[in-house]
Amino acid sequence: MRLLSQSSLTGQKVLLRLDLNVPLTSDKPPKIQDDFRLRSSIATINYLLNRDNRVVIIGHLGNPTGPQAAHSLAPVVDRLSELLGQEIAFAPELFSSSTQDQVDNLADGKVIVLENLRFDPGEGANSRTFARRLANYGQVFVNDAFSVCHRLNASTVAITEFLPSYAGLLLEKEAMVLGGLLRHPAQPFVGIIAGAKIADKLPVIKNLIRRVDRLLVGGGVANTFLAAEGLTVRRSLVDKEYLTVAQKLRRLAGEKLILPTDFVWRDGQIMDLGQNSIELFRTHLSHAKTIFWSGSLGVYEQPPYDRASSAIVRLLADLPATTIIAGGNTADLVHRLKLANQMSFISTGGGATLGYMAGETLPGLAALG
């Protein structure tokens, strides 16, 4: 994989793929609720600007079917301008003579953002035609959007056929940190796998169970394991089609796999871990040197069912261990408690992180060589 950090790009027109998919409020105009993904790529943008490159940023917001005002990147451009401390140009059309003129006339050290890639179906189809049109806006391509590298998109895969391509600073760091977890974690290595559905986490569990000293399981994922053991979870979320797989994994994992022992219930459904389970998890985590966490332990969006997840976040913030937090709602948990700076690393990826930790080949990384 060719790395931007090892390149000598100067005075080039750089097509830079970022993850601009940030949560927005329903206000008019909408406001950004969490700019973590934007802030995570500022280092790459500044790296390019400090070397007199012209930066053409491309990215997506949401998953629209055609142009939709609610998914315009305009509010993202405003926030990026604030973070960079310079005015950023915005092209409201992906492909037009006006957009081409704006890009062609971009001065060294300046930035322009193009409108939402997903307004065009060619992006999701990994269209070579679409990618070739994007390539007209740059001389080189830099991918700094780790969180979409698990998708076969034109702006992460097909585009590399038409331009010399590099991994940005964030992408490099994501691959380095997560790769280190799989190759040589400091022991004891403890994983926390939770969240709503076991289907999303099974590949990760299968890959990690051989590598960790303990795997703590919570949320809806734990429900399926518990049901597979014949324990009653009443009306709680269970992926019934994976009960047999859960039984096999449980036998394979043996004492490595730790399930909760008590719960907080509401209307016959498990909403959170009980105090005994929090203490059980705390015991295993307190001696760990490396911790990887993906998925909330309860319905954290609805207090007081955020108690277990919040307790574990605070514990990890105080531990001397290396703490790696997956993206998605796990990262949201940490940011809500304002403890992000006390974690070793927070990934920007949700599905991409799970795919990487499952040992899968991510198309966006493979395309970079």
Explain what the structure shows.
- By secondary structure, the chain is an alpha/beta fold.
- Helix content is 36%, strand content 15%.
- It contains 15 helices and 14 strands.
- It has helices spanning 36-40, 42-49, 74-84, 97-104, 121-124, 128-135, 169-183, 198-208, 219-228, 243-253, 275-286, 307-318, 329-336, 351-357, 363-366; strands at 13-17, 54-58, 89-91, 111-114, 140-143, 165-167, 189-193, 214-217, 257-258, 263-266, 269-273, 290-294, 322-325, 345-346.
- The protein has a six-stranded parallel β-sheet with strand order 3-4-2-1-5-6, sandwiched between helices.
- Strand 3, helix 4 and strand 4 form a beta-alpha-beta unit.
- The longest helix has 15 residues, at 169-183.
- The chain is elongated and about 65 Å long.
Quick structural overview:
The protein contains 15 helices and 14 strands. By secondary structure, it is an alpha/beta fold.
Can you tag this structure with a few keywords?
369 residues; alpha/beta; 6-stranded parallel β-sheet; 15 helices; 36% helix; elongated
Question: Could you outline the blueprint of secondary structure elements for this entry?
Answer:
Blueprint: E1 13-17, H1 36-40, H2 42-49, E2 54-58, H3 74-84, E3 89-91, H4 97-104, E4 111-114, H5 121-124, H6 128-135, E5 140-143, E6 165-167, H7 169-183, E7 189-193, H8 198-208, E8 214-217, H9 219-228, H10 243-253, E9 257-258, E10 263-266, E11 269-273, H11 275-286, E12 290-294, H12 307-318, E13 322-325, H13 329-336, E14 345-346, H14 351-357, H15 363-366
